[in-house]
User: Which sequence fits this backbone?
């Protein structure tokens, strides 16, 4: 059985490009193939448009790139609309830039290398700290989502 992983963070793509990415994954997979994504998402599903817009614009300002995370229901609908049946789903708090999570993800040596890079690169440090502030400010409405869709 073949499996594909999302080639790039779809959260950072326009709605049309998100759709194209998922459609292409479906086209490439054989029947029964699986497609996995791990993305930024907004919670809860009934989050108001004004809050969504605020989070999107603050994320875009922090990382200098348009970021359009979807709600859990919207991520599910996107996969299903392009031919996938969602077989697995999990969500977790957005802890991406917290020290403990960086050590978990990168190991102690990798976390130290990350810290040194931030200390040596003022612009990177500014952007990472800005992203971390946005994640912290909106922690009640930001999460990570993992979905596995089967063709």
Assistant:
């Amino acid at each position: 059985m073949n499996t594909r992983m999302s080639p790039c963070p779809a959260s950072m793509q326009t709605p049309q490009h998100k759709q194209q990415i998922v459609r292409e994954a479906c086209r490439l997979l054989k029947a029964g193939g699986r497609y996995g994504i791990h993305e930024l998402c907004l919670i809860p599903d009934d989050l108001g448009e004004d809050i969504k817009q605020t989070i999107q614009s603050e994320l875009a300002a922090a990382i200098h790139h348009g970021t359009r995370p979807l709600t859990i229901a919207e991520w599910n609908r996107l996969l299903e609309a392009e031919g996938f049946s969602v077989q697995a789903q999990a969500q977790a708090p957005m802890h991406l830039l917290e020290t403990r999570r960086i050590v978990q993800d990168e190991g102690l040596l990798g976390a130290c290398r990350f810290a040194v890079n931030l200390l040596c690169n003022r612009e990177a440090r500014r952007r990472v700290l800005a992203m971390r502030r946005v994640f912290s400010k909106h922690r009640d409405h930001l999460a990570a989502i993992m979905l596995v869709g089967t063709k």
Summary: The first helix runs from residue 15 to 28. The two ends are 11 Å apart (CA to CA). Strands lie at 3-5, 34-42, 70-71, 85-93, 142-150.
